[in-house]
Amino acid sequence: MALLQISEPGMSTAPHQHRLAVGIDLGTTNSLVATVRSGLSVVLDDEAGHSLLPSVVRYHADCRVDVGYAALSAQNLDPHNTIVSVKRFMGRGLTDIEDVASLPYRFVDAPGMVQLKTVAGVKSPVEVSAEILKVLRQRAEAAMGGELLGAVITVPAYFDDAQRQATKDAAQLAGLNVLRLLNEPTAAAIAYGLDNASEGVYAVYDLGGGTFDISILKLSKGVFEVLSTNGDSALGGDDFDQRVFCWMLEQGRFSPLSAGDARLLLTKARDAKEALTEHTEVRVTAVLSTGEMMDATLTQAEFNAMTASLVSKTLAPTRKALRDAGLTASEVKGVVMVGGSTRTPCVRQAVADFFKQTPLTNLDPDKVVALGAAMQADVLAGNRAGDDWLLLDVIPLSLGLETMGGLTEKVIPRNTTIPTARAQDFTTFKDGQTAMSVHVLQGERELASDCRSLARFELRGIPPMVAGAARIRVTFQVDADGLLSVSAREQSSGVEASVQVKPSYGLGDEEITRMLKDAFTHAKDDMYARALNEQIVDAQGLIAATRAAMAEDSALLNETETAAIETGIAALEKLMAGPDHLAIKRGIEALNAATTEFAQRRMDRNVRRAMAGQKLETFG
Amino acid sequence: MKGEVERHALRLTPNASPVMDFTQTHFELFGLPQSYALDRNQLDAAYRELQNTVHPDRFASQPEAEQRVAMQWATQVNEAYQTLRHPVNRGVYLLKLQGIDALDANNTKMAPAFLMQQMEWREAVEDARSGKSVDALDALSDELHAAHRRIEAQLAELIDTAHDYAGASEAVRQLRFMDKLIAEVGDVYEELES
After folding, report:
1. I want to staple A381 with a disulfide (CB 3.0 to 4.6 A). Which of A21, A352, B26, B123 is the partner?
2. Distance between CA atoms of residues A253 and A210, nearest Å
3. Among B10, B53, B74, beta carbon nearest to A610
4. What is d(CA A213, CA A219) in angstroms, rounded to the nearest whole number?
5. Positive or negative, the Cα torsion across B106, B109, B114, B115?
6. Cα end-to-end span (Å), chain A
C-alpha cells in the first residue's frame, strides 16, 4: 500500500494533532466505550473500575436519570420506570415486539416507533438510548481530557434502515458526532487483528443479548470485504433467559406474577444460564413478594434441550450467508465468536460442529466489538498515516418499492457493497395521472405488506400525459453508514421529490430539536452558547481544511475560482465573529457548495495518481 | 437544506455530473482491456486501489463537500466493479457499449436444445425437492455451475474473437437462465434445511 502515499486532504490540516475519537458498542445488555491510546485499543472504565455499562436506564419522577449499575439494581423495585434491553425497541413498532405481554413496561403505540410511559413522561427508545450514550460520552471525555471529535457507533449487521436511523438519532441526541455506524461483526473482525497478517475468508458469529449476526468476510491486502451478512435482529441471550424463565414458571406453579416478581425471576434465569457455562448443574431458588418459593435444580443437559431450537435458529442464517457468499463451510479459514451469549457451551459446540473447526475465542466476547470500533474511529479521525485498512461493508436486506398489486420491486439487492446507488424507471398507469406515490420497502418478501415500510412520499405535478408516457426515475442512494435516501424525478418535466428515509420510522428534525431542548433544560446547559460554539468549531475546521487544500493544490484552480473561495472564507469568518449560529451554519453550507467542484478535481487527480501507481505495480 | 439534498441525489444518476468523468467506461476506470475475458486478480487489485483512494472512510473527518464527492465516487466504483465482476452484467455491459440491448424484451430467441435442457434441469430441481434429496441437489448444483462456466467461455469467444454480438446476446440470456436456476436450487436447499 506504499503507492497510496499521496497526501490526503486530512493529513495536511494538522499532521501531528491526535484527534479524540472513540468506538461505542451500544449493546442490548451492556454498552462500552473504547479508544486507541499509543496505538493500542483500550476499553475505558468508569471511576469504580467497571468497563461494562449495563444498558439499563431508570427514570425518576423528578426527572433524574440513573444509568448502568444503579439502574440495574432497581429493576425489580421499579420495573415500570427501569428500561432494560431498550435496543430491542429501536426503530420498532408495537406489533414488532413479540413478548409484549411478559414485559413490565407501559408501552405507547406511536406511529413508527413504540414509546414507553415512565414517571418522567413518555420516552422514545431513542431518548433512552441517548441516556446510555451520554454516560459513555462523559466517561470518555473525562478519561481523555477533551471534547470528542466523534464516535464510531456499532449496530448489528442485520439492523434495517429504521433501526440504524434510530441509533444515529440517539447519538445526535447525546451530542455525539457520528463518524460512522459500523456493523458489529465487522468491528470484531478488525479487533481480531485479521488485517495484514491474515488473508482468506472468515466468519464472524455474533450472538448478543438481543440480536444475532453472521458475517462472511474476505481479507485481502488490508481490505476487509464483507461478502454477505445475515441474522435475526430479535434473537439473543434474552431468549435463552426467557426459556429458563418458562421452566421456572413450570417448576414453581406460581400465581400470576407482579412486574417486580417477573423481573426477579428473569434475573434468576440469567444467573442460572451464566452459572451453567462453568457448571454441569445449578440450583435455582427464589422467594417471591407473595411468599411463594421455588427451589429446583437445572442441569446443563436440560438447559441444552430447552434452548436447542434457539441454537439451530442461528444456523439457518449462517447457511444463507454462506450461500450468498457463494462459499461452503469448509472454505472458511477461521470463525470469530462475538457477544456474551457465545460463552454458552452449547452455542460454541454447535458452531464448532457446523464449521468443523474450533472457533476463535481468545478476545473477550463482550469487549471485542468496542475495541474494533475504537480502531476504526482512529482511522476515520485521520490519526493513522499510511497503514490504514479499508472496510467494504454491505446492506443486510434488500431495498425496494411497492408496485401495482402490492408487490415488492427490489431496487438494491441484499449484500450489495455500500455506498451504492440504483435507479429504476416507472411510468403512470392512468391517462392524465399527475401524481405518483412512492412507498419504500426493506426486506426479502414478495408482498409489500410483508416487508418493512421505510417511508412513503408523493411525486406531484407530473404533467398530464397518456398512460405509460411519463418516465419517472426513482433513485436510491445508500451511504457508508448504510442509510438510505430516495429521490424521484419525472424525466421530461424535471418535477422532483425526495426524502431522506426518516419520517415514518426515524425522528423528524423537529422531534430531535424538541428532545434536545428537553435534554438541555434538564441539564441546565446553555443550549444557545453550545450551538454557537459547535458552529464556530465546525467553521474553523472547514476553513483550515479549505486553506490547506488550496495551499496544496493551487494549480487546480484558476484565479477567478480562487477568488470565489476566498470570498466564501472571508464571508464565513465575518459571520463567525457574530452571535448567530444559524447564519454561521448557512455560511458553512455556502463554502461547502463553493468548494464542491474543487473537491471533485482533487479526487479526480487522486484517482489518476492511484491508477498510475496501480499500473506500475501490475506491469512493473 | 432540503434543496441541497435534492440536488445531491440528482447528481447520482450517471451522466448528470459535469465534472466527474463518467464518460469513461468501467474498463477504462480500472485500467483493463475492454473484453469479456477478464483477469479477475487485476480487477480486484484495481478495485481495492480505487476504493482505497475514494472511499468515504478516507474523508470521514473532512468537510462535507469532500465527503459528498467521496460517496459519489465510491458509489460509481462499486457499480463498475459489480458490473464487471458479474458474468451476466459484464456481458450485458459490453454489448451495451456496442449499442445492443441483450435483455431487450422483444428479443427472446433461444436455441431449442438449450430450452429442452432447461426443462430437464427444472424437472431435476423438482425431483430433488419432492425427494428431499440433498445429494441429488449437490450433483445438480455442480452440473449447473459447470454449464455456467461453459457458457461464459463461449461468451468470451463470441464477443472477443468472433465479434458475433447477436450470438453473444443469446449466450447472455442463457447465462441469466442459469443464474435463475441456480438461485432456485438455493431456495430448495433452504427449504430442505428448515
Report:
1. A21
2. 27
3. B53
4. 19
5. positive
6. 15
**Could you read off the pLDDT of A257-288 as tens digits, one per residue?**
888 898 899 999 999 999 999 999 999 999 99
Q: Is the pLDDT of residue B162 over 50?
A: yes
Residue A477 host element (H or E): strand A472-478
Task: Give dist(CA A546, CA A549) in Å, integer.
Answer: 5
Which residues pair with residue A217 across a beta bridge? A202, A226
> Looking at A306-310, A367-371, B104-108, B142-146, which range is the least confident one?
B104-108
Catalytic status, residue A87 = yes
Cβ atoms A439, A401 nearer than 8 A: yes
Say what the pLDDT of residue A349 is: 96
Helices (H), A150-223: 161-173, 184-191
Question: What does the pLDDT read at residue A526?
Answer: 56
pTM of the predicted structure, to 2 decimals: 0.85
In angstroms, the separation between the Cα of residue B56 and the nearest Cα of chain A is: 7
Closest by Cβ to A607, choosing from B54, B189, B194:
B54
A206: annotated active-site residue: yes
Pairing of strands A334-338, A200-207: parallel
3-state helix, strand, coil in chain A (%, to 5): 40, 25, 30
CA distances from A239 to A178, A208, A306, A313 (A): 31, 10, 11, 11
pLDDT tens profile A386-428: 667 899 999 999 999 998 788 898 999 999 999 999 988 888 8
Active-site annotation holds for A62: no
A334 sits in which H/E element? strand A334-338
Q: b/e map of A341-369 (b: 16 or more CB within 10 Å)?
A: bbbbebbbebbeebbebebbeebebbbbb
Say yes or no: A171 contacts chain B, CB-CB below 8 A. Answer: no
What are A498's strand-pairing partners?
A: A487
Which ipTM was obtained for this model?
0.84
Which residue from A496, A513, A423 is spatially nearest to A457, judged by alpha carbons? A496
Contact B54 A320 (CB under 8 A): no
Look at residue A194 in the predicted model and tell me its pLDDT.
60
Phi and psi angles of residue A291, each rounded to the nearest 5 degrees, phi first: 90, -10
* Ramachandran area for residue A292 (φ above 0: left; ψ -120 to 50: alpha; else beta): beta
CA distance A372 to A336: 13
Mean pLDDT by 10 residues, chain A (620 residues): 33 58 96 94 94 96 94 90 94 85 85 90 94 97 91 95 93 92 95 73 94 93 92 91 94 87 92 94 93 93 96 94 93 94 95 96 93 95 81 94 87 94 85 86 90 84 84 89 88 69 50 58 58 83 90 89 92 89 89 90 87 57
Q: Residue A33 in 3-state DSSP?
A: strand
Rounded CA gap, A242 and A452, in Å? 26
Number of Cβ within a 10 Å radius of residue A300: 18
Alpha-carbon torsion angle B126, B130, B131, B135, nearest 10: 50
Contacts of B12 in chain A (CB under 8 A): 421, 423, 475, 477
Task: State yes or no: is A378 an active-site residue.
Answer: no
